[in-house]
Each structure stands twice: as C-alpha cells, then as structure tokens.
Write a structure and sequence with these properties.
Layout lengths: L2 H21 L2 H9 L5 H14 L2 H8 L12 E5 L9 H9 L3 E5 L6 H13 L3 H4 E3 L11 E5 L2 H10 L5 E4 L3 E5 L6 H12 L9 E7 L5 H6 L10 H16 L5 E2 L4 E4 L9 E7 L2 H10 L4 E6 L6 E2 L18 H6 L2
Parallel strand pairs: 1-2, 1-4, 2-3, 4-5, 6-7, 6-11, 7-10, 9-10, 11-12
Antiparallel strand pairs: 8-9
Length: 338
C-alpha cells in the first residue's frame, strides 16, 4: 500500500467521524453500553475533534515536513492502547499506518467497540488494510513484532519495561495536566478551563487535575463558571467517586470546598482523585515555573495565558493538534527511524 493510499484511508475515516458527529451512529449506543464512562456527549466531542484533524489540510500541515517515503520494508509495531477516554489509541495507530509500517493492536478492555469500528471502516474502504492491521486476542508479548508503543499506568509500565526490554519502544505512563491562573481571567476563560477539567469526566492525561492560583484569589469565579458540568452528579460512576472522596475527606477532617458536583482541596499533589480538583496558591510566577519544570515528567500540558513550557490556551487541553505528541515523544520520528 502506498503512502497516498494510506492518506486516502485516513481521510475516509475523517468523513466517518464527521457523519457520526453530525448525524449520530449506532456505535455511540454500543460503546456506551460497553463502558458507561463513554457518554454520547463524550463520544461526540471525540468524533468532532477527529473530523477536524482528519482533513487533507491538517494532514499536510503535519506530515509534509517529515518527507515520508513509501515503505519498502515495513515492520510490525505492537500498539498497546489505553482506554481511559474514547479512541485514545487512534493517534498511535494512524502514526504507524502513515509511516508505512503494520500494526499489531492490543485493545484496552475499556475501549474495544470504537477502535474496532474504525479498523473495520478502514478495511471496508481498502481491503489492503486487513493485512496491515491485526488485532491481538492473545497476550501480545507472545506474538511477532519489531517495536512497541505502549500506554498504561505507572504500575503496568513496570511490566512493559520488563517484557519489551529488547525492543525499540515508546512506553508511556501516568501524566496529568495543570492550569495556572493570573487572577485576571474573565468568566469566559473559566468556562473554557471547565472544559479542560471536566471533558471526558477528567479521565484523560490532558485533563487539568491541579490549579495554581495567585495568592488571595477567591474560588467563587471558579464555582460559578463550572456550572455547565453540574449534571455530572447524575452520572452513576462519577457520583460514586464524588461521594467516596467526600466521605474520606470528611472522616479525615480535611478542609475542602464543595459545590455539589466537584470537590476542591488545597493540596501540593498533582493527581487529584476523580470528581475532585487540587489547588495551590503561588506568590512568584518565576518560582512556580521552576517547580513545574522540575515536575515536567509528570505533566502533559500547562493550561494558562502565561508562557510556560508546553502551555496551551484555555479550552485547548482536550483538543490537541497532530503534533501534540503524548509525553512529547515524536511518534512519527520514532517510527521512521526503525
């Protein structure tokens, strides 16, 4: 299969995503029944994002600088996908296909319906994709492959390091995102920040789990402009987490703030529990920048109007571009160097 045929296949999936976003799809119901975190709203936001990325203009903007050749000796790349948010493993799959290699995919137990749907759509569009994409039913470390891209928890990453120690690899583990406010934000800024915090229930590594606030900033503007996500409290899985952590903090007599659907707690940690949000006050922005630089390996992105390493504007954390690579590892460059 040529590079151009691969691009045509990806553009076709862009149309599939656009149709699913605009006109719905039975796959939305199937995916929700399989995993109740994958609500219709969450899936539609993912479909919309992919339909924007999978256009000729966006692909050219991303790929032309690489000068990708037609691959004469394709390798097989094992992809161990995460499943924390819908279709989170698609970027890796598309990168493998674009680079001319073949994919051996291990789907997450939390996200099987949607990736299989897209793989099947690719094969329907061009049957040659059937030879380029294999879905592993068994333990992937017992199958043939030449390199591996694996995403998982810090705990599973230790197993990845052992099992795949002899292969070229990209191994990703837990990261989170933070936001730095100046105190001059308008309500519309905070509403966009709410998207960065709550989209996909805060389950993604690009979701903000920690706020840095200027010393003395009141929390009222946050609570007032988070209300667009108040209905999360009606989601069974979300409210279970909310009630659990609220009960724990009450028993421990921890100080926290509660607006009946999100818990805010002043804490130096980065990774707040689901249905909660850590915050911390700062005095000097340069001191804070140094701290965040020291924690760079734990942080996916920094949401702020200020200029930080890996900073993105409010509302963009869960709307990455093609070259916003996870853990800032250039996947295409890795694949082309094999």
């Amino acid at each position: 299969m040529t590079y151009q045929q691969t691009i045509e296949g990806l553009l076709h999936t862009g149309l599939i995503f656009k149709q699913a976003y605009e006109k719905s799809s039975s796959k939305i119901v199937d995916a929700y029944l399989y995993n109740n975190w994958f609500t219709e709203e969450s899936q539609r936001k993912i479909f919309e994002a992919w339909s924007i990325l999978l256009t000729k203009e966006k692909l050219d903007e991303w790929l032309i600088p690489y000068g990708i050749p037609n691959q004469s000796k394709p390798k097989t790349i094992a992809i161990i996908m995460a499943g924390n948010i819908p279709l989170v493993g698609m970027h890796d799959l598309f990168c493998v296909l674009i680079s001319g290699h073949n994919a051996l995919v291990k789907l997450s137990s939390d996200d099987k319906v949607l990736p299989m749907w897209i793989i099947q759509e690719l094969i329907k569009f061009n049957p040659e994709f059937k030879e380029r994409i294999k879905v592993a039913d068994d333990q992937i470390n017992k199958m043939h492959f030449d390199a591996v891209i694996a995403t998982g928890s810090n705990n599973s990453n230790r197993y990845f390091e052992y099992y795949f120690r002899n292969y070229p690899q990209i191994l990703r583990q837990n990261r989170t995102s933070v936001a730095v406010l100046t105190g001059d934000e308008k309500p519309d800024d905070i509403k966009l920040l709410a998207d960065d915090i709550f989209m996909h229930f805060g389950l993604g590594c690009r979701n903000v789990s920690k706020l840095y606030l200027p010393n003395g900033m009141a929390l009222d503007i946050l609570f007032e402009n988070f209300m667009g996500y108040a209905d999360f409290i009606n989601h069974n899985k979300y409210v279970n987490n909310y009630n659990y952590h609220k009960a724990i903090w009450l028993m421990n007599q921890d100080k926290f703030y509660d607006n009946n659907f999100i818990l805010l707690k002043e804490d130096e940690g980065l990774h707040s529990p689901l249905a909660s949000l850590y915050f911390e006050y700062y005095d000097e922005i340069d001191v804070l920048k140094s701290r965040l630089d020291e924690q760079e390996k734990e942080i996916q992105c920094v949401v702020s109007k200020l200029n930080f390493n890996h900073s993105v504007p409010f509302g963009k954390a869960q709307r990455p571009e093609w070259n916003d690579y996870a853990d800032r590892i250039d996947t295409i460059a890795f694949l082309l160097a094999l």
